[in-house]
């Protein structure tokens, strides 16, 4: 039975008992049943009020949007690509293909293909190997290279081995380094002058060919 109807029936029962007690001049019982009648009426009313209050509070909490503090905006740090970052071939990687990079290139593993990084450093680390042509600003070989290497400065370290052709402006071979092939000295860079059209004179048209043997 619904609580509302149960309270109503209880109130009617107490009211009848109060009338019966009044008829028999039992005033104490009359007052008791009258009080119970009032309580039976009051309890459902109070419970309804409490339920309405809780419902209103829940609706208010649902309707009210939660204020979330905006996340601090941090400036995006430039990525490796934006910085023309370093390209690294790990020691356990065997890569086949050509690499064109605007940044430095470090080869720890094996590369079969050409590397083109005209304005940057290429370093063949100890244990690294390249089979292909290398074009860069500066080349340091501490591993093994088979192919043509072209750069402003080329350095063959103690564990470096180069087989092929070197095109360079400055060359350094440290004790223990091995080079087998031909070497050409590239023409010196033209000096920039304030007057348009003036270039450094006596620039050799053909590179000097210097055959080198194993050191």
From TrEMBL:
In the UniProt record, does the keyword Transferase occur? no
Pfam families, alphabetized: Bactofilin
The domain of life is Bacteria
Q: What sections of the protein cross the membrane?
A: 31-54
Q: What UniProt keywords are attached to this protein's entry?
A: Membrane, Transmembrane, Transmembrane helix
Q: Does the keyword Transport apply?
A: no
InterPro entries given in the database record:
BacA/B
By sequence similarity, the record places it as follows: Belongs to the bactofilin family.
Q: What is this protein called?
A: Polymer-forming cytoskeletal protein
Q: What is the lineage of its organism?
A: Bacteria, Pseudomonadati, Pseudomonadota, Gammaproteobacteria, Enterobacterales
């Amino acid at each position: 039975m619904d609580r509302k109807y149960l309270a109503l029936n209880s109130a009617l029962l107490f009211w009848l008992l109060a009338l019966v007690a009044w008829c028999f001049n039992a005033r104490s019982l009359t007052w008791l049943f009258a009080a119970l009648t009032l309580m039976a009426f009051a309890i459902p009313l109070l419970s309804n009020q409490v339920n309405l209050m809780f419902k209103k509070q829940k609706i208010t909490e649902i309707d009210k949007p939660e204020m979330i503090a905006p996340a601090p905006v941090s400036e995006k740090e430039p990525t490796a690509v934006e910085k023309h970052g370093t390209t690294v071939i790990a020691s356990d990687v065997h890569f086949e293909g050509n690499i064109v990079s605007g940044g430095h290139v470090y080869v720890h593993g094996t590369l079969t293909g050409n590397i083109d990084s005209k304005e940057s450093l290429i370093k063949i680390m100890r244990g690294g190997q390249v089979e292909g042509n290398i074009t860069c600003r500066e080349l340091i070989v501490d591993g093994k290279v088979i192919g043509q290497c072209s750069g402003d400065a080329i350095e063959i370290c103690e564990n470096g081995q180069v087989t092929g052709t070197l095109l360079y402006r400055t060359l350094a071979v440290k004790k223990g380094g091995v080079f087998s092939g031909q070497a050409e000295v590239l023409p010196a860079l033209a000096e920039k002058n304030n007057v348009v059209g003036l270039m450094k004179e006596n620039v050799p048209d053909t590179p000097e060919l210097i055959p080198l043997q194993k050191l």
